[in-house]
Amino acid sequence: MRSTDNAAPVDTTDDTPALSVRGRVALMVTCLVDLMRPGIGFAAIRLLESAGYEVVVPAAQTCCGQPGWNSGDRPAARALAQKLITEFEAYEHVVVPSGSCAGMIRMHYRDVFADDSAWLARAAALAGRTHELTDFLVNVARLARVPGSFQGSITYHDSCAGLRELGVKTQPRALLATMPGVELKEMPDCEECCGFGGTFSVKFGEISGALAEAKCASIASTGANAVVLGDLGCMLSIEGRLRRRGDETTQVLHIAQVLAGGG
Amino acid sequence: MQVRAMHFQRNAARALADAPLQDILRRFGTGLAEKRAKARLAYGIDAFEGLRDAAAAIRRRVVGNLDSWLERFEAEATRRGTVVLWAESSEDVCAHVLEICRRHGVKKAIKSKSMLSEEAGLNEALEAAGVQPVETDLGEYIIQMAKEPPSHIIAPAIHKSKEDVAALFAEQHRRPRLEDIGQLTREARLMLREHFLSADLGISGANFLVAETGSVALVTNEGNGRMVTTLPRVHVAITGIEKVVPTLEDLSTLNRVLPRSATGQEISNYFSILTGPKAPQDADGPEHMYVILVDAGRTGLLGGEMESMLSCIRCGACMNHCPVYRTVGGHAYGWVYPGPMGSVLTPAYVGLENALDLPQAATLCGACEAVCPVRIPLPELLRGLREKQTERGLRPWTERAGLGLWAWAARRPAAYALLSKIGVRLLRTMGGTRGRIGRLPLGAGWTLMRDMPAPEGRTFRELYAARPQGTRLS
Q1: Looking at B300, B316, B346, which one is the last position of a domain?
Q2: Model confidence over B123-162: pLDDT tens digits?
Q3: Separation CA A11–CA A146 (nearest Å)
Q4: Which among B5, B115, B118, B10 has a CA at the least distance from the CA of B358?
Q5: Which one of B241, B276, B300 terminates a domain?
Q6: Interface probe, candidates A33, A54, A62, chain B, greatest B C-beta count within 10 A
């Protein structure tokens, strides 16, 4: 990034290392990216760096605590929320390649600490600086050009937590619109849940599977080359159902992979 | 009504395997949700959101001071000649109605839709006492005939196809089978007319009670509510204590948001405000009017985490927008109230231990909260119930053990790194060359209808630690 280019939008065509950075971002990788699709973590780093940020990955991070919170285990959720706050509160921004985990930090930590004013204040401070990846790229970084390239048609699945807790709707589409090779084909009911729902997907496999099937039918009706989304849970559910129903060709990609390319 | 909420899992499986029901549910689909969206757009999105805020504020004000508003309602209603009765339980509801039947020599009762009557199992109690109950809401009429419970709070027979109804009518009415919906409706109307004219008692619910006037407000589409509340000598309205609103002005606000949220209508076909029995100068109306105010678990919610549920105005928007409801239908929930509001109310009213699956039977997608006209945070309430289940040891030990292991490891980064390193390699191997797992041990639910995409074999933290130092990734 050129040092003179300190006004947004950011030019990303220059591959030389940044001489000056716009700030430091801590990446909350998320447990599912860590375990299942590490490439998405690296894609997120590429995107943030291309926007001119120095990216730090706190090494001891594990999980935001959402599995405990949604399962009714408040002590476990609380312990992990405290751990995450301690690890991330020193940074100017925390970016998460997941609407669900970002939603946990932004919207639910305050409930986790409803009865503890000291932790509540720390949680609230962190919540205000925590962003879902595409929301950060559009509304904070004001990224105008993305490093990736993609040739083909894409249909976008709006993940529930990102959409309804954080208002992530236009951000990924705006970023995809900057990519000349991408043709966006919206599916019917793109805001409908894919059926993942965390442990719901295991406890109520038949219902979860039926919802995934409905989502896959919507995806198939567009004839798009790829379904793109912003959350790993939905990604695994949709990919798992697409393959089971015999679709070997529709790609299932995280938005970071498409935007960053090369991953 | 008998509680079958413990069998949600089994009921849901049966619903999924029921091809005709699945066909009906597919056709029901997002229809009512789309109608609501159109009504919201027509009203103006910002204005509608403002209306939701106002409606929520009215309901919160009432619930926060429920005893005062109820006393005001009782005083005003009594002053206008209505007899106000209090029922602590469903048994009390039945006892009150049966006593009214005895007092007035009632042999036949016609009914407008009342979910409270479903809660209390009133029809069974009436039959046992020799009083014939006749449901006159078309949907309720159908399911009474089929001896089935309602599957939706505003569309009780939504699980029945036209063909189901045609067969049912032909058999029960003993007339030639009709195929046209208009003709079927006309036949029901003809049959009901006899009952309207011969009944001694009309039983209705109440969408709202107005404290300042002691009135009962009814929102209906079929006109049967008017017949039920004006033709017979006696009218009994049965309603939950939470349905009271302070003023007619408040009623007006709520009546703007209720039909739009429920069916996308600007206003329902009929909207009645019933204040006291027939006065000497009135042309028609009942000679006696009773209102039964039912607690049946409601005061237990006051002052607690579930209090906001008492704001509910029974529009059904949460179930119309719920992906789980739309997939399994209302009967799977096993009691009077299905969908998200039912998953909160059923455990609250019949006991958490009698409805173990319901708080879990949600993806927490948030669609219900996004449309609730009185802004009840339904996903939060479901989470709260899950927490209570955990605290009371009502979750299976396997689940608790799994969560316990995860929570233990996630707090210990070194252990977590080691376990995840082993885990992803194991799963990678299980995924084979195609990179997917067809049967997941400990997660068989997942792989019933889906593969589990296998991990790539190394964790992000391993790869990140091994990256060339000091270079940018891009």
Answers
A1: B300
A2: 999 999 999 999 999 999 999 999 999 999 999 999 999 9
A3: 9
A4: B5
A5: B300
A6: A62
* Residue B95 · residue B66 · CB < 8 Å: no
Q: Could you tell me where the DSSP H helices lie in B130-178?
A: 138-146, 162-173
Candidates A62, A195, A206; nearest CB to B13: A206
**Mean of pLDDT values over B230-251:** 98
Please tell me the CATH code under which domain A23-139 is placed.
Answer: 3.40.50
- CA distances from residue A12 to A52, A133, A142, B204, B428 in whole angstroms, order as listed: 8, 17, 12, 68, 35
A95 forms beta bridges with: A27, A131
Helix (H) or strand (E) holding B202: strand B201-204
Domain limits of chain A? 23-139, 147-260
ipTM score: 0.95
Question: Considering the domain boundaries, does residue B91 fall inside one?
Answer: yes
Fold of A147-260: Rossmann fold (3.40.50)
pLDDT in tens, B337-391: 999 999 999 999 999 999 999 999 999 999 999 999 999 999 999 999 999 999 9
Chain A residues 56-85 with CB within 8 Å of chain B: 57, 59-63, 65, 67-74, 76, 79-80, 83
Q: Is the pLDDT of residue A105 over 60?
A: yes
- Give the chain B residue whose CA is nearest to the CA of A74: B387
Domain count, chain B: 2
A-B contacts at Cβ under 8 angstroms = 210
- Phi, psi values for residue B24, rounded to 5°: -65, -45
β-pair partners for B110: B134, B202
Which residue of chain B comes nearest to A81, CA vs CA?
B411
CB contacts under 8 A, A 117-146 vs B, are none
Distance from CA of B449 to the nearest CA of A (A): 5
pLDDT level of residue B468 (50, 70, 90 thresholds) = confident
For B103, the 3-state DSSP assignment is helix
Q: Do A35 and B455 touch (CB under 8 A)?
A: yes
Laid out side by side, the sheet with B288-294 consists of B83-87, B288-294, B234-240, B201-204, B108-111, B132-135
